[in-house]
Amino acid sequence: MVIFFPKKSLGQNFLIQPQVALDMAFSVSNSDLVVEIGPGTGALTKKLLEKGARVIAVEKDNLLYKRLSEENVDNLEVIHGDVLETDLFIKEPYKIVANIPYYITGKIIRHFLETENQPTSMTLLIQKEVAERIVAKDSKESLLSISVKVYGNPTYIKTVKRGNFNPIPKVDSAILHIENISRDNFKNLDENLFFKVLKTGFSSKRKKVSKNLKSLIRIEDPRRPEDLSLKDWLDIVRKMSQQFQ
User: Fold this and answer.
1) Per-residue DSSP letters for 163-190?
2) CB-based contacts of 9: which residues, under 8 Å, 6+ apart?
3) Percent of the chain with pLDDT over 90
4) Domain coordinates of the chain in residue numbers?
5) pLDDT at residue 245 above 90?
6) Each residue of 114-144: pLDDT tens digit?
7) Other C-beta atoms within 10 Å of 36: how many?
8) Long-range pairs for 188-194 at CB < 8 Å and ≥24 separation?
9) What's the first-to-final CA gap in the chain, in angstroms?
10) 198, 46 in Cβ contact below 8 A?
11) Are 6 and 167 in contact (CB under 8 A)?
């Protein structure tokens, strides 16, 4: 039996608990096309295939790629590369289900939410604290949470204790599910302008949003950025757009 040692440089924490893998596959149905990022030793891959999914697994690690690609499993395509730099050429609806490295969580989420061919949903095993920020568990929004919610609906599924991984990370993880992913909010609104306003609005979290945005638009709002909902941010950008017309 070949033993694979996790590489710290790739942020590898292999999932070793089959039940967690099964929990992550809850949204997958027979014949769904699923992209798995960093399949590692294949614990999640196995459960996705058992659910009847067609799986595209993207693996950056040379040894893990070779091991998985040599199995010749039906409904499994293994791609060697960095998912952030690989064009998957997918022209049909697909879902993402993945245990992703903590250090590139934000990049992966942004990459797939902002790509032209968005997934219909994303089920991710990520750091617990980040998952809580995305769903605004403390009722305080953030640049990250609004950036996700403008494209889809995030749900905190469950906490995954650190002992379910090898090596054991220093923090707990959580399963985050983002569904109904679309660009519906940008049908009549400039996407780039929205994010310009959002980033400017969160440039100083302790200041009132009206002060942070004074270089872009004059509004009377005594709240801090974290107290504004997605609807509030969309309303501000719509107001700006109307002024430019």
Assistant:
1) GGEESPPSS-EEEEEEES---GGGSSS-
2) none
3) 85
4) 8-182, 186-244
5) no
6) 999 999 999 999 999 999 999 999 999 999 9
7) 26
8) 189/234, 189/237, 189/238, 189/241, 190/237, 190/241, 193/237, 193/240, 193/241, 194/150, 194/233, 194/234, 194/237
9) 67
10) no
11) yes
* CATH of segment(s) 8-182: 3.40.50.150
Amino acid identity for residue 92 in this structure? E
Cα 76 from Cα 56, distance rounded (Å): 6
CA 245 to chain centre: 35
Describe the crossing of helices 191-201 and 230-244 by its angle, rounded to 10 degrees.
120
Which listed CATH number (3.40.1080.10, 1.10.760.10, 1.10.8.100, 3.20.20.70) goes with 186-244? 1.10.8.100
Is the confidence at residue 6, as pLDDT, over 60? no
Task: Look up residue 23 and give its DSSP letter.
Answer: H
**Which tokens hold the place of 215?**
């270089």
Q: Residues 117, 93: contact at Cβ < 8 Å?
A: no
